[in-house]
Write a sequence for this structure.
């Protein structure tokens, strides 16, 4: 089927299998491999992207259902000049990435929590990020980075 | 290494314009399956539990959203769990629904998952049925032979099965939420987030002064289908909710359920948990009905809130 999407500001028209997932379209058809595939069962959050301003796990999102939507992936967080966003910068300063596999999903999920106005509160942010697993950092540095940016943007 | 697997064996997706077109398509294509948020459907397909030629995308259909009209609270089937979690109207009138929505999956899952999907997948541990059952809800269905309304208690018929006729879909659910009704939903899990309930308990309480005029308790994850605890009116209506009445209600809930032993606990443990959670949920719902529960405070997921409700009733019930 023909699929029209706006991804990170650019228009795409793709011919895809009608039962392809959004994750598959992003990685295989379009080549945006920042979005990771982990569990494929909605549990780990490493495939998190924004669809029309809402976070979804793209491994469970049937691409056909989001035809016409606006998608933001981790590649779209940095802005055109390829400078890092304040949140990405905070991840670096806090050492919030080790192997980095969870990082794209964490960044997208945290970015939207902050845009939605989450308080700079550790408990609220832990709860908000409970759909994103990290096997390396023990979470504290990630939470510190997100709390900092929630407070400075607040 | 980069190739992400496709969803499942070949199938086609149809995107109807409205409920009528969806129902016509379902009727004309036996075996076609609605897909709303897809958080159950996509996993069922991946695990080989569901193979179908047609997926009918109903996620974008307008089913009315969340509307209160007098005592009737109607929620469209395609309403996302996240919209229920963040609804001002529901926080004020039916906090049990907010408390159930808030613990379902993650933000990402709640952004996708819908009320209709939660009810029609008929998972015994599903979060939304117990609170809807304590509001005496009905379900509006649309099918090839027109529309009908059933008691929500009659929708699920067993684990994974419903009374929906071929081609029929759920359009909305209407709960009875009279002024002053207090409600609460709490559950037992092994982890705080991203876990399914070992036991889920909803309570609704109506009072006149300190006297109970109605009490309902709904259970999830401890019987093949979500259920209401029978016989609570006999022990509670016309009485004050003292520790004896609470203990008796908790004992009835424990005796009414039929949990299995699995990874979430043994049957004995889950029965015990049902008794504990029932007493907690009733106390919180009653405090809300009487106006003594802080406005806008959600119950902790397991209902243990000694700051607001001190006393031994918060602990194990005899
Ligand atoms: C990681 C993860 C965590 C989860 N955690 C929880 C949890 O804590 N608690 C919980 O209760 N659930 C949980 N779930 C299960 C799931 O998210 C919910 O059951 C959800 O509400 C299903 O809604 P959906 O719109 O995604 O349904 P779909 O997957 O689209 O559909 C589910 C079923 O219902 C049918 N259906 C959907 N809408 C209708 C309709 N209007 N009429 C007729 N049939 C319909 C479909 O055909 C399908 O059989 C979890 C799932 C995942 C992946
Ligand atoms: S790959 Fe999508 S949630 Fe794990
Ligand atoms: S940094 Fe390795 S999984 Fe999070």
């Amino acid at each position: 089927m023909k699929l029209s999407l706006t991804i990170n500001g650019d228009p795409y028209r793709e011919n895809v299998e009608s039962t392809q997932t959004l994750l598959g379209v992003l990685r295989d058809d379009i080549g945006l491999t920042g979005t990771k595939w982990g569990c494929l069962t909605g549990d780990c959050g490493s495939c998190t992207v924004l669809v029309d301003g809402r976070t979804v796990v793209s491994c469970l999102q049937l691409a056909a259902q989001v035809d016409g939507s606006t998608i933001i992936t981790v590649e779209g967080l940095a802005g055109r000049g390829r400078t890092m966003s304040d949140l990405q910068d905070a991840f670096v300063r806090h050492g919030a990435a080790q192997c980095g596999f969870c990082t794209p999903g964490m960044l997208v999920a945290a970015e939207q929590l902050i845009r939605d106005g989450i308080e700079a509160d550790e408990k609220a942010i832990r709860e908000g990020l409970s759909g994103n697993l990290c096997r390396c950092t023990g979470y504290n540095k990630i939470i510190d980075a997100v709390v900092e940016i929630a407070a400075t943007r607040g | 290494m980069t190739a992400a697997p496709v969803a499942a064996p070949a199938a086609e997706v149809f995107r109807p314009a409205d409920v009528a077109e969806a129902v016509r398509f379902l009727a004309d294509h036996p075996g076609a399956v609605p897909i709303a948020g897809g958080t159950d459907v996509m996993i069922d397909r991946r695990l080989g539990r569901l193979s179908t030629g047609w997926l009918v995308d109903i996620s974008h259909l307008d089913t009315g959203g969340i509307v209160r009209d007098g005592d009737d609270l109607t929620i469209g089937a395609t309403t996302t769990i996240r919209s229920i979690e963040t609804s001002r109207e529901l926080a004020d009138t039916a906090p049990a629904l907010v408390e159930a929505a808030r613990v379902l999956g993650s933000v990402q899952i709640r952004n996708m998952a819908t009320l209709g999907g939660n009810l029609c997948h008929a998972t015994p541990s599903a979060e939304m049925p117990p609170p809807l059952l304590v509001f005496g809800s009905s379900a509006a269905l649309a099918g090839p032979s027109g529309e009908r309304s059933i008691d929500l208690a009659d929708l699920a018929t067993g684990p994974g099965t419903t009374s929906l006729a071929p081609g029929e879909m759920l359009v909305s659910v209407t709960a009875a939420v009279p002024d002053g009704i207090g409600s609460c939903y709490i559950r037992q899990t092994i982890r705080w987030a991203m876990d399914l309930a070992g036991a889920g308990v909803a309570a609704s309480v109506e009072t006149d002064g300190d006297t109970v005029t109605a009490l309902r308790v709904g259970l999830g994850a401890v019987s093949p289908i979500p259920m209401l605890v029978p016989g609570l009116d006999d022990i509670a209506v016309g009485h004050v909710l003292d520790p004896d009445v609470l203990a008796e209600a908790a004992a009835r809930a424990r005796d009414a359920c039929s949990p299995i032993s699995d990874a979430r606990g043994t049957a004995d443990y889950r029965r015990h948990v049902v008794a504990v959670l029932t007493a907690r949920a009733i106390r919180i719902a009653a405090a809300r009905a009487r106006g003594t529960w802080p406005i806008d405070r959600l119950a902790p997921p397991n209902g243990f809130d000694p700051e607001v409700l001190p006393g031994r009733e918060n602990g194990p019930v005899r």
Remarks:
- Residues 140-153 of chain A form the longest helix (14 residues).
